[in-house]
Structures are given as structure tokens and as C-alpha cells.
Amino acid sequence: MKISLEWLSEFITLNEKDPHTIAERLTRSTAEVEQIEVQGEFLNHCCVGEVLAIAKHPSADRLLLVDVQTDNGMKRVVCGGTNLRDGMRVAFAHIGATVKWHGGEVVTLEPVKIRGEKSEGMICAAEELGIEELFPAKPEDGERPVVDLNRLNAVQTRGARVSTPLRDALNLTDTVFHVSNTAITARPDLFSHMGFARECVALGLAKWRQGRVTSKQKSMSIELIPMHVDCPGLVPRYLAAMIDIDAQGESPEWMKKRLGAVGIRSISLPVDITNYVMLEVGVPMHSFDADDIKGDVHMRLSNKGESLTTLDNEKRTLPENCLVLSDDDGVFDLVGIMGGLRSGTKPTTKTLFLHALSIDPVTIRRAIIGAGLRTDASTIYEKGVPPVTTEQGFFRALELMLELIPGAKLVSAIEDKGTNGKAPTISINPDDVRATLGVEIGDKEMVKIWEDLGCEVKKDPKNTQYSVTPPLHRLRDLIGPHDLIEEAGRIHGFDNVPTVFPHAPMQLPKRDTRIHKLRESLANDGYWELVPLSFVSPELLKRCNLSVDEAVRVKNPIGEETSLLQTCPLPQLLAHAEKSLPRTDAALRTFQCGNVFDKVGAQTFALGMLLCEKQETGILNDPFLTIKNEILDAVAATGQTVEITLLKNVPAIAHPGRCADIRFNGQSIGEIYEIHPVVRKRFDLQHRAAAATLDLGILLATPSPIIMQKQLSSFPAIRYDVTVKRTAKDVTGTLLQKLRGASPLLESVNVHDIYEGKPLSAGEYNLTLRFVYRAADRTLTEDEVKKEHGNVIAMIH
Prior knowledge:
Blueprint lengths: L1 E3 H4 L3 E3 L4 H11 L3 E6 L7 E11 L7 E7 L2 E7 L9 E5 L4 E3 L5 E3 L3 E3 L2 E3 L2 E2 L2 H4 L24 H4 L8 H4 L5 E5 L13 H10 L3 E3 L18 E3 L7 E8 L8 H9 L7 H12 L5 E4 L7 E5 L5 E3 L5 E3 L5 E5 L2 E5 L3 E2 L11 E8 L2 H11 L4 H6 L5 H18 L4 E2 L4 E4 L7 E3 L1 H8 L5 H10 L3 E4 L6 E4 L11 H12 L21 H11 L3 E2 L5 E2 L1 H6 L20 E2 L4 H11 L7 E10 L5 E10 L10 H15 L5 E4 L7 E11 L2 E9 L1 H6 L6 E7 H6 L16 E10 L4 H9 L5 E10 L8 E10 L8 H12 L4
Helix pairs in contact: 7-8, 8-11, 12-14, 13-14, 15-18
């Protein structure tokens, strides 16, 4: 969106003259001004000069010595222009002027000598002053033409007298703000100069000039072209009329200048008027040649396959359900986007059909996407043009047409459908405004802000509440107290809200690192962690001898393979082992920490471990004993201790003779077992495999005990190794518990080695125990220890 400060001055008187200050205030409170375009930026220290005499340069064949009459007297310059002639009015730049040297590098002119001749300024080409659009190069001017001000038309010539400042002569006195469209997406009222005029007044940057009143024209008794709005829900406001004209006429210079300043090319007076009103009031409009409309006009939704040749002379296939105008000959306008070529205003047009409307934003946005066509009009319409703006724009365009177009007169009744809507009354407490913004804004300032924005404000005499009624042009965005609070904040200035840093104790939350220590312990033992989804298939549970009925079924599964919530972490570990074990060189160790679910959907955070051997094993590397030690190490890493006991209720996935219960504080929290041979076979596991499960929720819910360190004894220890014959029926854990309390001098007793094989019989093995004796207050003698050791050994048999 481009906003002309000169155009704004028709409605308001700016208190602030510096455009950069105005742009900064608008950016902070209303919308981002991305660029400030100063017309005639390179015309400072430039004037209209007249060529008095031209002579050859004595030392250069392609240069001339030119005497120029300027506002500072006669100046002699060295010039290479190819179109210079006596009496020619030129663009003259004095010493100190800033120009674009040959249209490129920006330089400041200084006194110079060129080939020995003094040059006191510069006769400029159009590209050196950034005015190429006003003075396009012509072939007859030669290779290096300078600006020829004699080409200005009669109106412009009056301001191009010799010695006139060049900016005034070319009427390049405007400053244009380039406003980001995205910054005003929620403010359709700001897609106009009138909208920004209201903002400047509300921000204290300007005051209203004596208001210009657009009068509503009296309708004629002659009927308008029969008009049918077939989808009134999508067109809340519609106005139309017919105007007879003698000729199109010529757009006035002030209108061309304002349109050109914001990037709109002058086309014809009727079209220029509709474009002018779009930019001034904020409602896109269109005028048709009424003689090209055949029969009744219908505003309706397009049908599939319909087409239209638009004003750019392109035939377009219209998307279905976009808003169109049609007559007996078919569609002639893509409403809100672009008119049709057939019904467009032409030099021969004698009757104009002018209309203005508000459109449902969703419908117009769908049409933009479907047609692949975006215009200035559609950009405004998709934001939601307020109905009151449609009415204001229509009568403003009608006023300009009757005033400026030769012989223009209203020849029909004015079609007027819909209403401008009704603004809601919003109740708001000023204390809520101050509490929300965190700044003290007085009641008077608050009321003034809302009133300057066009709101009607009344105070409730019974309490401190205010009743605020927004203006009709703000119906879309002022709908509740929060919107009024925002308006008060932005007009007061968010930069005026004091900075308050949060005041709160910044204590780091307590973190339980025990799960990380457990993972690290398993990783150190060679385990790989898997992180699968918590979904399994019924088939996988059946292969593991687990009940499908105990699993929760997902209501909307992606597929059958993810239709159940896992009841145990082991099935997915086994499925992974089936694929990965053949590709490993040694035993495969994997684990999973994840949620498991029971049949009522209650979840438990559980650990699953799986150890699959790649070859036959003996008692030293028995998978059951190995995984038992590794899970005990993992639990110890969390600071807890568990007890391994016999398992009474053996799960169907486990080997019935090789299983154990993991108990914690007298409660069963897990199991250790070898995988049942039948299950192993289903997963193609050729050798023994062991697994462990652990309820981590129970384990980690209990705080770890505080470990008290004691001082190491400085006295030496005496060690004895004892080997005893054992069978699979003997329970080593019970034996160790009995031995550890047998003597006060016995510091520790542990399994040191295990042996099976010849000459031992099948099922027998040698168990080597290491006994360590030490006293805390003295060095033990051999005889003293032998006596104690004998008593301890006696307890083995």
C-alpha cells in the first residue's frame, strides 16, 4: 500500500513536517512503513536553466562549452549533450547538488576543470536526476541527450519558467510511504488514504481540516438495468447507478499526479476516478459500458467450465463458485478481481453503469486462488471491505464523475441493497486497561484515544464502566474489550509502557538422573537401546505366547500391525532380534525403556532387556546368569538394591525352569527368565536367550537411600579361596547369606570362579568362593584367621 502525504493533506493538516518522524510513529503504532519515497530526491540545488550560447570545446571534439541562465546568474559548463540548442530550457544542477553520474554512482558536484575549461555545474540527463519516466529518451535526441523542458505540456510549462526550482517546475513535491500490506491485514479500513488520515489524527500527528462533505445524489425515476443479487449472503452491501456522458474527457493534472505518486497509470477519466476512489476511500469500484450489457444482470456464483475474456485480453476458465456478473450473453465480470473486456469502458461509451459492493472475504480469496489472478482490487476485497466504506466510496465516485466528466448526468434510480451494519456496544473498565497494559493511562486520555479513533464513548453514571461503540468502518476488528485495550496501548505508545523484568525465584527444577545412570550402565555392558512405538500387532503378541485379550485396542489404528498397545516391552525386542541377530558377530544385547499398558489402559514405565547368544554357552557365560548380573548392576547405578527370588507364577513366554522374581521392598517389580524354546524357535533364535523386565515407575518413585561412606582400614587383609562341589539344585544365594554373618572378622565372601566339565558329572560344577578377613584396629595373625576360617568352612557342609 502506498500513501501520499500530499494526498493526505486534503483531509488533514500535519503537525509534524518531517516524513521520517511521521513514518517512525506510524511504524510503532499502526503499520510498518517499509520505504519513504521522496519525489525529486535528486532535484535539490537544481533549477530550470536556459541555454544562452553554445561553443565548441577547444580541446575536445565531443564536448561543448555552454552558457546557461540560472537562478544564480549565468553559468558556464562543459557538456556532452547531443540535443542542445540555443533557447532550450534544461535541468541545471548547481555546485553542491547530488546526482547519479550517468545514471549510476551517486556523486556531489564540485567545481572542476574539464580539458582545461572550468565547469560551474551540470546540465543533466533524465537518468542523472531519476526522472526517466517523465522524459523518456527519443532516437532523434542522439546518444547522450539532456532533459528538454520545452517538451512539457501547456499546463506544466507555466511552472517551468527559467530560474524556477526544478522540483517545483516538475511538480515533484510529494512524499510517498510504502506500507507493508501484511501489517494491515486485519485492518481493511487502512487500505486507503482516508484510513491513514484517521490514524494520523488519532496519533496526534495531525488535525482534521474542515470536512469535505460528499452529498448523496438524488435518484432519478428511470429504472436501473434489472439487477438480481442471487447470493445476498455473500454481498452484504451493493450500490449501482447509470450515468450518461458526452465524452470521457481528460483526467485533471491533480488526479494524474496523485495516482502516479502511488504507482497507478492514468488510463481514462472514468477508470481513473474509480481507481482514485479505491485509493482514497478504500473500496474498489468498476464502471461498465451499459450499452454492452444485454438483458437482466445477475450477480451469482460461477458454474464449472464458464470462461471470461478479462480486461487484459486473456481468456480465462473460471473456477467454480466464484462471484461473477452475467447477462443474456454470459459472464461479463469477475467480481472483485477484474472486469471483462466486452463490458469495459471504451472511448465510444455514452452510458456508464457504476457499481460498488462489499464481498465475503472467503469467497473472494477462494476466487483469487482458483483463478490464479491477483489485482489491487482483490487484495483489498479479501481483507473485508466494510459496508459503510462501500457506500462512501460509491457516492464519492458518483460525485467526481458528475463533476469532471463532460455532460455527465445521473439517468437512473440508485440501486441500494443491504445495510451498513450495526456496531456492538462494548463495556469496559478503565482499571482493566491499566492492569492489562501495566501503565497508568488516565481516564481522560483513554476516552480521547477512543473518540479520536471514531468511537462513541459514554460513561455509566452508576459505576466506573464505559460503554464504547466503535465506528462502522471498524466493525471487523473492534469487537470486544481486548480490542479497545489494544487500541489504547498502541495509540498511547507501547514504547511508553515501562519495562518490568519478571521477579521470581529462578531455581532449577529437581531432576532425577537415575534413569540416565541406568541407561549408561546398560550401555557400558554392551546393550543397544531401541526406541520403537508403543504399538504392536496381535500376531506379534501371539508369537510371544502373550494374551491379545489383555491388550488395549486402538480405535483408529494406522494398520493391523499397530492396532494394539504393548503390554510388555519384550515382543518388539524379539522382533528386532529376529532381523538383527544374523547380522551380528557376537551376542545381541538390546533394551527398551517405554510405556506398557494393561487391559484397562493404565500405563507403566517399564524396562525390557534381551540377551541373545550367537553360540552354545556354558555356566560361565550362561545368558540367564549374565543378564541377572547386568540388571543388578543397572539397578545399583540408580542407588537401589533388589532381591532375586524364585518365581512362582511363570509367564508363558518364559522357560519354566529358568526364571526368577525381582523384588523391591518386599514387592515384585520384575522378572528374569530364559525365553521359552518354543518362542525362540518362532523368532528363529538358534541359541539360548534371556530376558528381564522391570517396573521402573515403582523403582524410581522411591528415593534412593543415602549411602554413608566409612573409612578404609589401613590394616592388611588375609584371603582364602575355597572350592566346593555343587549341583543345579543347590541355592548359592542362601549359602552366601549364611556365610557372611558367620564371623566378625569376615569382611566379604563372593563367588570367585565356577567350573564345569571333566571329571565332574553332568549337572555338577565346582564353585570357588573367596573369603576376605580383616580387622579395623589391628593386623590379624595367621593362626587367628585360620581358627575363624575353620568355623566358617564348617557351615558349608
